[in-house]
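Recall that a protein's primary structure is simply its ordered list of amino acids. Everything else, from secondary elements to tertiary packing, is in principle encoded there. The following example makes that idea concrete.
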Amino acid sequence: MSRGQGWVAIALLITLNGLVLLDLFSSAVAQPQETHSAVQPWEYQVVFVRDSGVSTELAMIGREGWEVVSSRRANDGNDVWGYELILRRPK
């Protein structure tokens, strides 16, 4: 091993040791999480919203208790662009 490689190896060991210590420290001081007696059941829905109606649709979806979990640009197959939304709300 050359002298330069030796220094690189030492630097990597120091970095790894620091990361391990940081992980141990953060685990030790982390706040305990609340434990729930029951897991919240969700219902899910996937909807397509046209570009022209995004604001109106989102307002209506929100009033019905849905929240957007994920969204992506999508085409309905007929050259109409909009968003495919994955929604959820408590059951």
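The chain has a mean pLDDT of 78. The chain has two domains: 1-35, 42-90.
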